[in-house]
Amino acid sequence: MILVVDASVLITLARIGRLQLLQEVADEIVIPNAVHDEVVGRGAGRPGHAEVAQASWISQRHVRDHTAVARWKQN
């Protein structure tokens, strides 16, 4: 199973020292580039920054279907 997560999931799990739970429940963890930038780029020094930056098992992807993202945000 591929799991796509947002910044709040990464930050919350990192805060409680349980980021690896994602790796335990899914075959692949994917975050959009914007989420990586939010947590690692602009989030320097904040919870989740170091953990996500060091997690080689989390892959980044560019969002191609912005319509699907917009639909998801409406729910």
Description of the molecule:
With 75 residues, this protein is of the alpha/beta class. It has one domain. The chain has five helices and three strands. A three-stranded parallel beta sheet has the order 1-2-3. 16% of the residues are buried. The model has no long low-confidence stretch (mean pLDDT 90).
Structure summary:
The chain has 75 residues and is α/β, with parallel strands linked by helices.
Features:
52% helix; 75 residues
Tell me the series of helices and strands, N- to C-terminal: EHHEHHEH
In percent, how much strand structure appears in the residues?
15-25%
Largest sheet: 3 strands, parallel
Global morphology? globular
Mean pLDDT value: 90
Low-confidence stretches: none
Number of separate domains: 1
In DSSP terms (H or I, runs of 4 or more residues), the helix count works out at 5
Measured distance between first and last alpha carbons: 23 Å
For the biggest β-sheet, the strand order reads 1-2-3
- Strands, total number: 3
Gyration radius (Cα, Å) is 12 Å
Structural class: alpha/beta
Helix content: 40-55%
Oligomer: single chain
Topology, element by element:
Layout: E1 2-4, H1 7-15, H2 20-25, E2 28-32, H3 33-41, H4 49-54, E3 58-61, H5 66-74
Parallel strand pairs: 1-2, 2-3
